[in-house]
Amino acid sequence: MALIQIGALEMQLNRKPIKNLHISVLPPDGKVRVSAPEKMTDNAIRMAVIKRIPWIKKQKQAFASQPRQTDREMVSGENHFLWGRRYRLELIERRGSHKVLVAGAGKIKLMVNPTTKKQNKEQLLNEFYREELKNNINKLLAKWQKLLGVKPEFMGIKKMKTKWGSCNTKDRRIWLNLELAKKAPECAEYILVHELVHLLERNHNERFMSYMDKLLPDWRERRDLLNKSPLAFDEWTY
User: Fold this and answer.
1) Which residue, of 19, 45, 65, is where some domain finishes?
2) Nearest 10 degrees: CA dihedral of 206, 208, 213, 218?
3) pLDDT tens digits along 154-196
4) Range(s) of the domain holding residue 215
5) Which of 13, 126, 158, 174 is the S-S candidate for 2 at Cβ 3.0 to 4.6 Å?
6) Same domain membership, residue 130 and residue 57
7) Can you give the pLDDT at residue 73?
8) Mean pLDDT score of the chain, rounded to an integer?
9) pLDDT digit string, tens, across residues 95-143
């Protein structure tokens, strides 16, 4: 991507076969990405961006003030989140197969062999999150596929750096961010519906918004809840 500079703002510029210019302010640090039609002139792009500078600064400030989770050490007593709720980790070292269990009194039990490294503990917990999110999404998918009359060719879960979800409309492939398992359930449902609607309308235009308003009237509240929740910035990798 090329870089453009307007005052103190540095932005990535990506020319694409699209009709309208789109500006994104991306987590975790508020990086600005501009997607512009291939035939749009540099001057027209700059003028369009200048008009949006107050909005860009507001979004960057929101990310700067958003709470961050500290680095996880995978030890007993530290906090972890599941479906928007805070849990205390209880590390249990013993011989046998590795397990992750949600226990009473707000605990997540991580059962591992005594020699297990931190990286492997993290991987085990992430696989637990993956299964939780997969099971949740599978329950929702049948409902929303029927309501929308669409069916993706592929639905996957992975860690993503700048998006809660993505949809390749050509291949009809949808990815969801693994971090959604830590957020409130209504947030995961919002992202799922958002990506499924892209199979009906590729762009974030009035038609797209109309679908969202009709199908999920409180989607803006769900979006705000998701964007205000703590960012696990140390885990945002592709």
Assistant:
1) 65
2) -120
3) 999 999 877 899 999 999 999 999 999 999 999 999 999 999 9
4) 120-235
5) 13
6) no
7) 85
8) 88
9) 999 999 998 779 999 999 999 999 999 999 999 999 999 999 999 999 9
- Give dist(CA 123, CA 144) in Å, integer: 30
Question: 0.90 exceeded by the pTM?
Answer: no
Cis peptide before 28 (omega within 30 of 0): yes
Q: State the sign of the Cα–Cα–Cα–Cα dihedral 90, 230, 208, 47.
A: negative
Residue 111 within a domain:
no
**Count of structural domains, the chain:** 2
DSSP 97-159: --EEEEETTTEEEEEE-TT--HHHHHHHHHHHHHHHHHHHHHHHHHHHHHHHT---SEEEEE-
Same domain, 126 and 226: yes
Is residue 139 domain-shared with residue 220, that is, in the same domain? yes
Distance of CA 76 to CAs 110, 114, 118, Å?
Answer: 9, 14, 12
Same domain (yes/no): 132, 61: no
The CATH number linked to 226 is 3.30.2010.10
User: How many whole angstroms separate alpha carbon 131 and alpha carbon 138?
Assistant: 10
- Name residue, tokens 């309208």: 20
Q: Which of 65, 82, 109 is the last residue of a domain?
A: 65
β-pair partners for 86: 81
What letter would DSSP give residue 184? -
